Amino acid sequence: MNFRLKEIVMWSHQAKNLWMIVTIVSVQALFATSGLADTQQAKHILDATGIKGGLIVHIGCGDGKLTSALRANDSYIVHGLDSKQENVDAARRYIKSLGQYGNVSVDLCSAERLPYIDNSVNLVVSQDLGGVSKSEVMRILAPNGVAYLKSDGRWEKSIKPRPPQIDEWTHYLHDASNNNVAHDSVIEPPSRYQWLAGPRYA
Question: Nearest Cα to 94, choosing from 63, 60, 62?
Answer without folding.
Answer: 63
